[in-house]
Amino acid sequence: MSAAKKTAPKKPSAPAEEVVVDEVPDADAELGAAAAEAKGDEVLVEHGGKTYVLPSPLDYPVDVVFAENDFEAVRVVLGEAQWQEYRKARPTIRDFQDFNRKINEASGN
Known about the structure:
The chain is mostly helical. The chain is built from four helices and two strands. Strands 1-2 form a two-stranded antiparallel sheet. The relative contact order is 0.16.
């Protein structure tokens, strides 16, 4: 008679990591931004009932690289006239965050 072979109990497998996606990328917006960047087209951003015209991201003023925060970066990208137009609406921080998000999305960032 042969001896019974002992086997170690199977360890439960570790649960698979759950992947949570907060945002679904907007492929159309990303492709549009990439095409505009490649061609050097201006980018239009609608916000607060106004249309803002931004240069292609590769045509942003180099000063945007030296901006110390999002406010400075948006001001450089918009240019002084459009920045002042935006400020006339007396935007809140929440409104600025939304506007900044729109600019980033339209620019492919």
